[in-house]
Specification:
Chain B: It comes from Thermobrachium celere DSM 8682. The structure holds two protein chains of two kinds. Chain A has one domain. Chain A has 14 helices and three strands. The radius of gyration of chain A is 19 Å and the shape is globular. Chain B is of the alpha+beta class. Chain B has a single domain, classed as TusA-like domain (Translation Initiation Factor IF3, 2-Layer Sandwich). Chain B is built from two helices and four strands. Chain B has a four-stranded mixed sheet, with helices on one face. Classes of the chains: A mainly alpha, B alpha+beta. Chains A and B meet through helix 9 and strand 3 of A and strand 1, helix 1 and helix 2 of B.
């Protein structure tokens, strides 16, 4: 099937380009990490004070603009929103707390495994578990209600914000903070990172590549489409890492990672659970935001705020391991997501369609 | 021909696919599904085809109508 071939190629490209970005300066196993890079960007804007992770990441800007340009060119660009905005903000916030407990978004989880970081295995099992719980809610009729068409101008705002960030970054503006050491100081050249982002964003806009969707669709519909992209990322990144000599199999001394299996599991379980209710992983939210989906923009703003709080409140893990505050936050996160799940179940969704009668589902 | 119509407009994936799945469990011979975005169209098309249905697509005033029938 031609469709499937395209998403496999898409996955291979994402995996290879991620390895390439590491070769050219990004932190190891962090060619692209949407959660980490949103966090770095928030830091670069001075919204948190963690000095090691402050840098406006051009990959994020590229993904948004790539998806914008592709959707615009293909006439897919459609401004819409209004589907439980504040709930989405909270879910985005919590997904970020979970991701920073583990130290990576679902995409980086795959890249970490492809770099030989076996701690990611706990993350993947947790991620799948979180998705499994989320699906229970979907099957019971969970919905954040419908979206509505909005004025086109609303949809341009987020791409424009990204364009402004890009101008500030390229001009080396003194408004921004640039980490002098730590992961935030490690980065590929701006132009290369931007280019990779553009390619990934444009391509994934076409294929709808999504890490959460992969496992979700397999469980829900026995559909391998999205998961095949996921697997392709792993294979290409694995080969790339071996070729570039950064593959390092084991649990200890993995870059920007810790070895606490339980909390790696729980962190990604929370990220998976929250993402299923949002309808997509953090990368997918960036793509949708570029396409004019304001619900996704709100989710990203939630993630960005979550990232700032994660560092201001010392919730984010470090290579030394998780923090007590972080553990408490993850537990609260589970409770909040479960409550959101419960209170958004449409009880009257017992299906009654009658001949020629339209049923609002 | 009169058909059962599922209105999944405005729903974000995977909800339109879930609604389609539930409708097809009740109406095994087929249903019409109305959606308003390309992602939902593609996802439902793939799901219906994988489940052994034929899918025809019509566009009407910006809405996309998927006509799903048993092969």
């Amino acid at each position: 099937m031609g469709d499937k071939k395209l998403i496999i190629i898409n996955g291979l490209i994402v995996g290879f380009l991620s390895a390439l970005l590491v070769k050219f300066g990004n932190p190891i196993n962090m060619g692209i990490c949407v959660a980490c890079f949103i966090r770095d960007t928030v830091g670069g804007l001075g919204l948190h004070r963690a000095e090691l992770v402050q840098y406006v990441r051009p990959e994020i800007i590229g993904i948004v603009l790539g998806a914008f340009l592709m959707s615009y060119g293909k006439r897919d660009f459609q401004t819409r929103g209004g589907s439980s905005p504040l709930t989405r903000f909270v879910l985005g916030f919590i997904v970020m707390i979970g991701a920073l407990m583990f130290l990576g978004c679902p995409l980086r989880m795959v890249l970490r495994l492809a770099g030989g970081d076996l701690n990611a295995l706990f993350g993947i099992v947790g991620f799948a578990f979180g998705i499994f719980i989320g699906i229970k809610f979907l099957n019971k009729g969970f919905t954040l209600k419908r979206t509505y068409n909005l004025n086109k101008a609303e949809g341009y705002i987020f791409p424009i914000i990204n364009l402004i960030l890009l101008v500030l970054l390229i001009s080396g503006s003194t408004l921004l903070i640039f980490s002098q050491k730590g992961p935030g100081s490690q980065h590929a050249p701006i132009l290369l990172a931007l280019l990779v982002g553009l390619v990934v964003g444009a391509f994934a806009q076409r294929t709808r590549l999504c890490m959460v969707g992969g496992i979700r669709d397999l469980i829900l519909f026995k559909d391998w489409y999205l998961l095949s992209g996921f697997i392709a990322i792993f294979i290409a990144a694995l080969l790339g890492n071996i070729a570039f000599g950064v593959f390092n199999l084991g649990f200890v001394k993995q870059p920007v990672a810790h070895t606490d299996g339980l909390w790696n599991f729980l962190g990604m379980a929370l990220a998976g659970f929250g993402s299923v209710l949002l309808g997509g992983c953090p990368m997918r939210q960036l793509i949708l935001a570029g396409e004019g989906n304001i619900d996704s923009v709100i989710s990203i703003l939630g993630m960005a705020t979550g990232a700032a709080f994660a560092h201001n409140f010392k919730l984010a893990s470090s290579p030394q391991g998780p923090t007590v505050n972080g553990k408490i936050a993850v537990i609260i996160g589970f409770i909040v997501v479960a409550l959101i799940g419960y209170f958004n179940i449409e009880k009257n969704l017992t299906f009654k369609v009658k001949g020629d009668v339209k049923v609002e589902g | 021909m009169k058909a059962n119509v599922v209105d999944a407009r405005g729903r974000a994936c995977p909800e339109p696919v879930l609604l389609t799945k539930k409708a097809l469990e009740v109406y095994k011979e087929g249903v019409d599904v109305v959606v308003d975005n390309v992602t939902a169209r593609e996802n439902i098309k793939r799901f219906a085809k994988n489940s052994g249905y034929n899918v025809d697509v019509k566009e009407e005033n910006g809405d996309i109508i998927l006509i799903i029938r048993k092969e």
